[in-house]
Amino acid sequence: FLLPEVETATNFPNDFLFGVATASYQIEGGWNESGKGENIWDRMVHLFPERIVDHSTGDIACNSYKYYLEDVTYLTYLGVHYYRFSISWSRLLPTGFKTYINPDGKRYYQELITNLARMGIKPMVTLYHWDLPQPLQDIGGWTNPVMARYFAEYADVVFDLWGQYVPFWITFNEPGEVCETGYGIGINAPNVNLSGIADYMCGKTLLLAHARTYHLFNIKYRPKCPAKVGITISSPWYEPKAAGEAEASERALRMEFGWWANPIFSKTGDYPKILKDRVDKFSVYENLTESRLPKFTKVKDRVDKFSVYENLTESRLPKFTKEEIKYIRGTADFLGLNHYTTYIVSSQELPNNSMQYRQKDLGVLKEQDSKWEPSSASWLRVVPWGFRKLLSWIKQEYNNPVIYITENGFADKGELNDVKRIEYHSSYLKSMLEAMEQDKVNVKGYTIWSLMDNMEWTDGYTIKFGLYWVDFLNPLRRRVAKSSVEYYKALIANKTIPETTTKAANVVCFP
Ligand code: PNW
């Protein structure tokens, strides 16, 4: 007589994967070591130090270029199934072009990947996490359509070297941030300030670069090693400010998230209709001068008679041809999703003579509730329920794609007993589980941003996302476990969210 075996109930499916993420510029340092070329972030932090709040650089950062084996030790301790990191294009190809491969760059990533494999940790490799080789920016960067070819050629080099080791490839991290903050509002490198123009040019090139790389992989590499190839898009949840503002929420999601997701993940492909309609419409208005038609209503009456293409010039949004729409559609094995926070949205149409083109195209005001728990990042408040809503919306809008959460994280000031980080992850994971169990959203993996404190772009070292604290004043860049390390380690081992009612003990004994 045998008693039935007691199965410990776990929150997460058995095949669910957990990981942590970093990005080359944010952790590697070694900005000009052993043959690495200059990239757009090197250029920006050196020429315009005031663009970084603490005037810092990523010249050394966590010095993972030197201490990557330590990183592997901590990844092993955490027990993560995979490590999401990015390759520095200009470390591998110093000029950006495939004609010269830097042997030390190649050796560095080979060593990292080999040591991960030794420890049973799968690499999830991002090909582009914002650090474009400077020579490629000198020819216009992502606004130049030729970049689709150069990106695919770089990817070809990487696939050829490491296709055998890497089960997950991510072409781009956050095309929205690349194009809008880099080429639209000019906050991030390369600081191009042409909102509603250069950002849309960048977007078209980037989507074609992604698709070209996916097709290249299919033809040349998938027959040998069938990795999953995807793209990572970031999105907050947009909660309508009032019942009547549901349209503003829908519009923001479609014009931001959908800008990237629609061409790849929708049945029809192409940009969302609302994005095309609104940019086309406003592009026409912009061409009618105030002096000719002083009053808004008259402008409207007048231009409504003309189609966009009959008018003075073309839309600011460069369109895809039918062939390109087909070429891009379906080019992802999974959707990588970065999610951090939620905004409350309402419709806010800007006047026609406003030069904030992209803002006008969007026509949405974004706010946050001051009652929501803040973080050390101005844009990040803790709103766990938004995660479930976003996941369910994506499932509905894009026919239930396979999703990996490629980033989710909380910013503080670097506390070792980081209870707020632990609470953040517990609440967001619970919300994600509700989406999986109740709304049947197909989430396969979850990644914490970040393994360790690092160079947080224009915020420099003033805000911290790490599970490990890093001593940036010490040349050894010692890493020290925060409380969240034990929390995440237990979570991964048990595939269950640990009880956090009792405060996590600070396990750092001799820091
Ligand atoms: C991500 N937002 O960017 C990046 O992929 C990481 O490199 C970065 O370190 C991390 O978030 C933390 O900032 C984001 O405004 C930038 O919602 C902005 C937002 C989200 C993600």
Describe the structure.
- The chain has 17 helices and 15 strands.
- The protein is globular and about 70 Å long.
- By secondary structure, it is of the alpha/beta class.
- The model is unreliable at 289-296 and 302-312 (pLDDT under 50).
- A hairpin with an 8-residue loop joins strand 14 (468-470) and strand 15 (479-481).
- The strands form four sheets. An eight-stranded parallel β-barrel has the order 1-2-3-4-5-7-12-13, surrounded by five helices. A three-stranded mixed β-sheet has the order 6-8-9. It has a two-stranded antiparallel ribbon with strand order 10-11.
- The protein starts with 16 loop residues before the first strand and ends in a 17-residue tail after the last helix.
- The structure holds 4-nitrophenyl beta-D-glucopyranoside.
- 4-nitrophenyl beta-D-glucopyranoside binds at residues 23, 26, 173-174, 177, 234, 236, 338, 340-341, 379, 407, 449, 456, 465.
Estimated radius of gyration: 23 Å
Let me know the number of strands.
15
Largest sheet: 8 strands, parallel, barrel
Number of helical elements? 17
- The largest beta-sheet arranges its strands as 1-2-3-4-5-7-12-13
Distance between the termini: 54 Å
Indicate the mean pLDDT: 93
Active site: 407 (nucleophile)
EC number: 3.2.1.21
Pfam families: Glyco_hydro_1 (PF00232)
Protein name: beta-glucosidase
Question: What's this model, at a glance?
Answer:
The chain is α/β, with parallel strands linked by helices and 511 residues long. The protein is 40% helix and 14% strand.
